[in-house]
Design a protein that fits this description.
Strand order of the largest sheet: 4-7-6-5
Bound molecules: flavin-adenine dinucleotide
Strand content: 25-35%
Distance between the termini: 48 Å
Structural class: alpha+beta
Oligomer: single chain
Number of helices: 5
InterPro entries: FAD/NAD-bd_sf
Organism: Salix dunnii
Helix content: 10-25%
Number of strands: 7
Number of domains: 2
Protein name: Flavin-containing monooxygenase
Amino acid sequence: MSMKGCRFVDRKKVIDFSYDDKTGCISDVICDNETYKADAVILAVGTSTIQELAKKSATLSTREEFLKVLNLTASDLVSTKLWLDKKIRIPFARNVCSSFNDSSGWTFFNLNDLFDDHRNSPVTTVQADFYHANELLSLNT
Ligand SMILES: Cc1cc2nc3c(=O)[nH]c(=O)nc-3n(C[C@H](O)[C@H](O)[C@H](O)COP(=O)(O)OP(=O)(O)OC[C@H]3O[C@@H](n4cnc5c(N)ncnc54)[C@H](O)[C@@H]3O)c2cc1C
């Protein structure tokens, strides 16, 4: 895409937009202390981010379609990564655990089996993601 003239701007946080009353379209994207003219805008971010933008943006907070996004729910997740100081054999590359009776659920990944970056590493790297983490985050221990 860069070779076709597309410019990627790193480390810029979109904080607001300008709206053109005449065209009925977003005309500018405001990032920190810079503003970019826009013919069209595509938001490729998650629900929580769009909700945060819709609440803080003077433009989006007036638009019904963005206010409706505030009705969507998202659940918290705690992601843990463990580095073990040697290679150990783990029978499965991935696994999932869930229950219908309580709200817990988690996934497990052996990153050495799944990602080329970790495949020839001398250490074992595993990741476990715990869903509905709002229940875990409030624990004190
Ligand atoms: C811990 C975890 C484990 C997951 N495991 C799996 C899995 O095993 N299998 C699977 O299929 N999916 C998994 N997912 C889901 C998967 O990661 C997402 O579905 C996927 O990353 C969504 O891609 P995306 O490009 O839409 O959004 P993202 O990957 O979230 O990309 C959004 C980008 O927007 C940027 N951004 C955010 N706010 C702004 C802003 N204001 N201004 C500018 N840029 C901004 C972010 O920095 C990010 O780079 C997992 C997600 C998480 C969090």
